[in-house]
Amino acid sequence: MSILIIGGTGVVGREILRTLSKSGLRARVLMRDPQLDLPLGMEAVKGDLSRPNTLEPALQGVSRVFLLNALTQDETQQGLNAVAAAKQANVRRIVYLSVHRCHEALHIPHFATKQPVVAAIKASGMEWSILEPNNFFQNDGAFFTHAIAGGGVYPQPLGSVGISRVDTRDIAEAAVNCLTRDGFTDRHWPLVGPEALTGARIAAAYTRLLGRKVQYAGDNLDAWDMAFKPFLPDWLRHDFRIMYEHFQARGLKASAEDLAACRWVVGHPPRSFDDYLHDVFLPIAERLTAPA
């Protein structure tokens, strides 16, 4: 089989490439900049979802596609461009990354933008799998390491109801299973962790891990908005603020059925937050705080 990975350079995409490489599998990776380093067995192909005419060469001979298009103001159109190009190229199977319980919170912009893409995939005639991950553990290491390990603050205003955050290693294993094995198609797959985590619980876990106090920044979204204004564009801060309001009011918890489905598609019980802390975050923090 020939695989094309769309969205292979972000937090989830890089993990999928590592998982494919460790399994001895090869894939093409759609990239605006094909000069970036990739794991062994991965081949960069130049293309841009916002320029549909660049997708046909990348899809030649491809039978399976993983699609993760980034949060942009034209996210839906980019996703639809990818689906149309895959259908035109006679791709057999497409695996798409959506969001856990997406249909229950369509007032959140980056949840709603995924619905037309899902509808197009289901109408395409291709085999499909829709992966629906919760908030990623690895977001902490990718975006908040300095705040947590250096500043002693956990900044995500996740509230006190609880969300069933997930490890991107589990997302990657599910994606590779759906791409390469039979028995996982024509179904939505929730990808969740085993515990509903609150902002305070996460801060306490970092306190234990690092041996020094990490304070939860709290639920004040006006304060969060001001703190992140230098780092996020207005449209994305607005989107995330609506998401955090939803998390604070309703949470995003996994059901027993969600956990069972996750275990099936990943191939093992989902990793815990403590697994992530010791396996992934602690080495990052130790490098950050090591003497020069």
UniProtKB/TrEMBL annotation:
Gene3D superfamilies: NAD(P)-binding Rossmann-like Domain, UDP-galactose 4-epimerase, domain 1. Residues 3-217 form the NmrA-like domain. InterPro entries: Ergot_Alk_Oxidoreductase, NAD(P)-bd_dom_sf, NmrA-like. Pfam families: NmrA. This is SDR family oxidoreductase. It comes from Lacibacterium aquatile.
